[in-house]
Structure formats: C-alpha cells, structure tokens
From TrEMBL:
Segments of skewed composition (Polar residues): 25-40
Record protein name field: serine C-palmitoyltransferase
Family of the protein in this entry: Belongs to the class-II pyridoxal-phosphate-dependent aminotransferase family.
Organism per entry: Solea senegalensis
Species lineage: Eukaryota, Metazoa, Chordata, Craniata, Vertebrata
Chief localisation class: endoplasmic reticulum
C-alpha cells in the first residue's frame, strides 16, 4: 500500500490501511487535506490554499495560506517553534574536541601495542580465540571487531553492570566488588555500600516502590493468577486483566484502542515489520533507539535517515520520496512512515511534534511516535508529548510507549485507531508468538495509570507529575549556573552532562560513587566519539535535599576534573 497521499481509495473494511498492499487509482481526503499525486506534481489543499509541488523544480507555484508562513527554526509548516527554542545543544571549546581525539588516539595506540604483546605471547589472552588447528578456517571470533572491548572497555568496565542488592528507588544499596586482573574478572568483598543516591534509573514518577499498602492489589493478583501465564494471548493466555489494561491505556491516551505487549523492546522491533515491508519507505531520525532501528531493518523496507529534529532535512526527503518514488522503477512508495521518539534518551531532546505532524499531513505520510521516555513524564497530566504540545492524539497514526519507566512495570503498548490494533492482533509477531504479560506486572501498570489519572480517588498522581517537572527544572537550572554543558529540552527529565574526554568519563563515575552518588556514564560507540556524557534521570521520588547533595558533589567534582566547559555560565 502506498502512503495516504498516493492514488488510493479508502474502502470500508475491517482491516487497517496497513493490511493493504496495493493502491487503488483514486484520491484520498484525510483531515480536510486532499492530495493528488501523479508522476509530475503533487497538490495539497490546506485551509483553503493550494500548494503545487513540481517534481523537477520543487517550487511552490502558489502560496497564499497555511504553508506560506516560514518559521525561523523550521520549514514551511506554519507551526510556532517556541518549544524547540527551549532546547540547548551548546558546542564545547575547540581545545576540548582536540584533546578528546588525542585521548582516543593514545588509548588506541596502546591497544595495538598490547595486541602485539599478546601476539608474541608476552601477555595473556583473556578473550575467546580460534584453536591452532582452526587458523585456516574463516575466523569465528573477529579480532579487530573486538578491539574496543579488549583494549578500551575492559579497562573501565568497573563503571558498568554494578550489582544492586535493594529496591532501585531514589536510593539503593550496592554490593562492593574489586578486580585483581584489570577488570577481566570481579570478586565481591562482602561489603555493602548503603544509601547511594540513584540518578540513573528511569523511575520518573517513583512507582518503582515496595510500599505494602500501595502494592496490595498487585499481591492479590499474584494470589489469584500466579506469576506467569505460560502461553500467548491467542491461545490460553488472554486474561480479563489484559483487556482492562488495554481499555485503560486507550482512555488515558484518548485514542480508539490499544494493545499491550510483554516487552518494551519487542513492541518496536516486532511490530514495525508488521506495518511496513518491501516497497515501503521509512524516514528515521538519526538518534532513534536501537529497537526502532532493528524493527526497521527487519521490515525489509527502504530506510533513509534524516538529521536529528531537523525539519528541513525531513521535508527534503519527503519531497524526494514523493517525486522520485522507488529506486530504479520510480514507482510510488506503498507507504511512507516517519519514525521519531517523544524524548530521546541520550540527548534529552523532545521531538518537534507539531512541525512533524504538519509535514506528515502535507505529504500524506504516516507517523510512528515512540513515547517510551515521554509518556507519564511530560505534559500537565502525564499524557506525553501530544499533551505537551497540545496536539490532537488522532494526528499520530501509531502511538507506542513502554511501561518500564513512568509506570514501574514492564512491557509496552501500541495505540491508535481500532483498525490498526485489530490488524496487529493477527499480524504482530509479538502478539502471536510472545508470552502474555505477567499478571502482577499488568496490575502494577493498571495501579500506576489509575493513580496518574486520578481514578484511585487521590491526587497523588498529579502531585508526582508536578514534582517531577519541578525537580527537572531545578536540576537543569542549577547545572547551567555551575557552568556544565547540558543537552535537551527544559521539560525533559533526561539530563545529559557532557564530559567529552574518555579519561574524565571514567574518573567522574568513580569519584561520584565514592561520594555515594550512582551515575550512568556513556561513551563511544553509544555516543559520537567527541560527546561522551553522564546521563541523569530525574524522579518524583527525589527530595530537594537529595538533589542539593548531588549538585554539591557535582560542583566539587566538576571543579576538580575541569568539567565546566560552558561559555554561557
């Protein structure tokens, strides 16, 4: 099936548009916008004005309406860019970038030297390798592919995969471990580090808790249903509890229907192949999550990547897709799907949703919105970026989110029109082959969502949302005052502090743990080589005293390690 702007007649059918593979020769009228796509030109009517796009010159012949207004920070979408200007992506001084490259060059050089020592057997090899009699075979363990792991990651591995021994709430307990062979192996000392302030978990609203009174309904469901289902929902694993959650999600998001899945990652990776396939085009933001990228690759659709939150780049690709069609044959694309996230988990930036919706309507594409980090965390009532920007949820074709962050559970959902959800029930690999959500996890999500919506008879949910927003703005403002370079939107609870140099990343993580502050540090290849960072995640369960203590230690460590690179202090 082609995108909505192609020649297709909408037929009355119980199947979603996503189930059709061929287009019918007619036009489509969706949301007051009519598109006529031929081999030469596209006409789009919006608010009484018509814009003709010539496929050769790509020039607007007539501009007298909605798209005539040009915004400073966006393409001709007519959508204000006020929210976008609240994002910060300050560039570091030149010497910082130079020293970062020099640092990576030095560790890489020493890595090659250590590989030479291993080759001549002056140093022991710890990783798997081919046996001597298999040296003439195709290598099973690619030496060069493991270069980063052998020589860079192993030296700093103590900063990741630390074993917790308590609830990962606002504070947690950590099992101390040491290494006698430069982080190739670890041993526990038997000592526990108590009350480490947790700034790394996605516990945005503080629902990852062990309060017996709050979890009473969850305990009751364990008694009633047990812990596991041991079956898919299409066989004997469909509980009334699952259907109640789906109705609640649809009501919360203000859409027609929803469907829940037991794993958030698989919600993306296993459902995208059911929506698009060969002959379809996916336009993906360059900073999309791995689950979106994997789902796009498994779909066999053509993938094109546009610059992060860059509406000029997206519109250029949309125009080229409409005018040129598929490679070689130049046939129209069956569908064009724009894939974005609500909040980007490494940058803390927020999608420019109103402008993307305007482009989606203009070029008759579909929109897939991943709200894993934004649902529950932003918006006056926690309904995500659609509420933050005051846009109609119906303008987003596929709404995706997870229960692993704001709701303190596990799994994910797909929401939208009823036809879409009905189609996925019979075509999604996650729906057909995956085990259904665990009953106590399902009840936990229901409990948290009812609290957010106020259906539990309290205002605790709204209080948590407002507390998260207050903590986020306070923490960001203080970091800016101190002189750190931070990324992201003012309302985003994901707050990256740029550290840049590889040596300082390691020293920062170790020093903060010494001060009983648990942080998450991220570097290459998860980020660009010059943009290593520490990522802080705010929570409604953080008290002002906790935040002030973290900020106090950040100020001292930032001075000691010379991490305050901002020129906007």
């Amino acid at each position: 099936m082609r995108l909505r702007g192609s020649k297709r007649r909408r037929k009355s059918s119980h199947l979603s548009d996503f189930s059709r593979h061929r287009a019918t020769p007619d036009s489509t009228n969706t949301g007051g916008s009519r598109s006529l796509t031929g081999n030469m030109a596209t006409a789009t009517a919006n608010g009484g004005s018509i814009t003709f796009i010539n496929c050769k010159g790509l020039k607007d012949i007539k501009k007298n309406g909605y798209y005539n207004h040009r915004e400073k920070n966006g393409p001709r979408t007519g959508v204000p860019s006020r929210e976008h200007r609240r994002e910060a992506f300050e560039q570091p001084p030149m010497y910082v970038a130079v020293m970062t490259y020099v640092g990576f060059a030095l560790v890489t050089l020493f890595g090659y030297f250590r590989d030479f020592l291993r080759a001549v057997r002056l140093e022991k090899r710890h990783l798997a390798q081919e046996r001597e009699e298999q040296k003439n075979f195709v290598p099973l363990y690619q030496d060069f592919e493991n270069f980063y792991t052998r020589n860079l990651y192993m030296r700093v591995r103590d900063n990741w995969n630390r074993p917790l021994c308590s609830l990962p709430g606002p504070v947690f307990d950590l099992m101390e471990r040491v290494s006698d062979d430069y982080n190739w192996t670890f041993r526990l000392t038997g000592r526990t580090i108590h009350n480490v302030i947790n700034t790394g978990s996605y516990n945005y609203l503080g629902f990852a808790e062990n309060n017996a009174d709050s979890l009473k309904t969850v305990a009751d469901k364990v008694q009633q249903y047990g812990v596991g289902i041991c079956s898919t929902r299409q066989e004997v694993g469909n509980l009334s509890l699952h259907e109640d959650l789906e109705k609640l999600v649809a009501s919360f998001l203000q859409v027609e229907a929803s469907m829940v899945f037991g794993m958030g990652f698989a919600t993306n990776s296993m459902n995208i192949p059911a929506l698009v396939g060969k002959g379809c085009l996916i336009l993906s933001d360059e900073l999309n999550h791995t689950s979106l990228i994997l789902g796009a690759r498994l779909s066999a659709a053509t993938i094109r990547v546009f610059k992060h939150n860059d509406m000029h780049s997206l519109e250029k690709m949309l125009r080229e897709a409409i005018c040129s069609g598929q490679p070689r044959t130049h046939r129209p694309w069956k569908k064009i799907l724009i894939m974005v996230e609500g909040i980007y988990s490494m940058e803390g930036s927020v999608v420019r949703l109103p402008e993307i919706i305007a482009l989606k309507k203009k070029y008759k594409a579909y929109l897939y919105l991943d709200e894993a980090h934004s649902i529950g965390a932003v918006g006056s009532s926690g309904r995500g970026v659609t509420e933050l920007f005051s846009v109609n949820a119906a303008d987003v074709d596929i709404m995706m989110g997870t229960f692993t962050k704001s709701f303190g559970g596990a799994g994910g959902y797909i929401a939208g029109k009823k036809e879409l959800v009905d189609y996925l029930r019979s075509h999604s690999h996650s729906a057909i082959y995956a085990t259904a959500m665990s009953p106590p996890v399902t009840e936990q999500v229901i409990r948290a969502m009812k609290c957010i919506m106020g259906k539990d008879g309290s205002t605790q949910g709204i209080t948590r949302i407002h507390q998260l927003a207050e903590n986020t703005r306070y923490f960001r403002a203080r970091l800016k005052e101190m002189g750190f370079i931070i990324y992201g939107h003012d309302d985003s609870p994901v707050i990256p502090i740029l550290l840049y140099m590889p040596g300082k990343v390691v020293a920062f993580a170790r020093e903060m743990l010494e001060r009983k502050v648990g942080v998450v540090v991220v570097g290459f290849p998860a980020t660009p080589i010059t943009e290593a960072r520490a990522r802080f995640c705010m929570s409604a369960s953080h008290t002002r005293a906790m935040l002030d203590e973290v900020l106090h230690h950040l100020n001292e460590v930032g001075d000691n390690l010379c991490l305050k690179f901002s020129r906007r202090k």
